[in-house]
Amino acid sequence: MASLVYQHNSYYAVFSVNRKKKWIKIGSVEKKEARKVLKQLEIQYIKGKFNINDLTDSILYDFLEEYLQYSKTNKAFSTYIREREIAGILKSHFGNVIIKTIDTKSIENYTSKRVDMGLKPASINRELTMVRFMLKKANDWHYLDKVPKVSFLKLSKNPIKFLSIDEIERLLEHSSVWLKPILIVLRNTGMRIGELLALRLEDVDLQRGYILVRSSKTNNFRHIPINGELEVTLNRLMEYCVNPK
């Protein structure tokens, strides 16, 4: 009648109805307990006490809590914080609806509302990126039969502006004593701001002449060679400003 499946740290009762599989979440319980619940569900279904299609529906608020737990475990902390903020926006816009009611049209309405509120296209697209990934997870977790289409806003492409050597020198000349070494590191390494902020003392190897740069998003790393100017700056920082303890 139904089978017991373990996925995503939870047990599911899987019914076959009209050649389609219907998933009912039992939860994170012992296998023995999950079998008991499966048996009860089979009996209730045979007696016609529930509509199996209704039981497969998940409401947005509950799903977002589950999704954010996934985000916290599997994504960079900064990404989790951003997605937690976006989750609050989604709750405010959609309300506590059934996940299956969020379709392409409702997503387009959400986009239009965010545009009317004056948000920049890049900010809206970041929100839509989470919406698309979130709905894909809902499909993976059997809350959605099909992932609705998510259309992103077009972004205007502006040419990248580079500072001239004179502009960089003037910037360094007028920088504070704390900002100047930061700018020197950026100029000589090409590191991103997030990478620089995540840099640790043990990642700087002056003896071998490289900086170990870690990526919190890809969980990868790369080595950047230390040139003469950078070596002088880092030595000065470690001698006068850094407490190794």
Please describe what this structure looks like.
The protein is of the alpha+beta class and 245 residues long. It is built from 10 helices and 6 strands; from the N terminus they run E-E-E-H-H-H-H-H-H-H-H-H-E-E-E-H. It has helices at 31-46, 52-55, 60-74, 77-94, 104-116, 121-140, 165-173, 179-189, 193-197, 228-240; strands at residues 2-7, 10-17, 20-27, 204-205, 210-215, 220-225. The strands form 2 sheets. It has a 3-stranded antiparallel beta sheet. Strands 4-5-6 form a 3-stranded antiparallel beta sheet, with no helix packed on it. The N and C termini lie far apart (64 Å). The mean pLDDT is 86.
Secondary structure: elements and pairs:
Layout: E1 2-7, E2 10-17, E3 20-27, H1 31-46, H2 52-55, H3 60-74, H4 77-94, H5 104-116, H6 121-140, H7 165-173, H8 179-189, H9 193-197, E4 204-205, E5 210-215, E6 220-225, H10 228-240
Antiparallel strand pairs: 1-2, 2-3, 4-5, 5-6
Helix pairs in contact: 3-4, 8-10
Estimate percent helicity: 40-55%
Globally, the shape reads elongated
Straight-line N-to-C gap: 64 Å
Mean of all residue-level pLDDT scores: 86
Could you give a quick summary of the protein structure above?
The chain is of the alpha+beta class and 245 residues long. The protein has helices spanning 31-46, 52-55, 60-74, 77-94, 104-116, 121-140, 165-173, 179-189, 193-197, 228-240, and strands at residues 2-7, 10-17, 20-27, 204-205, 210-215, 220-225.
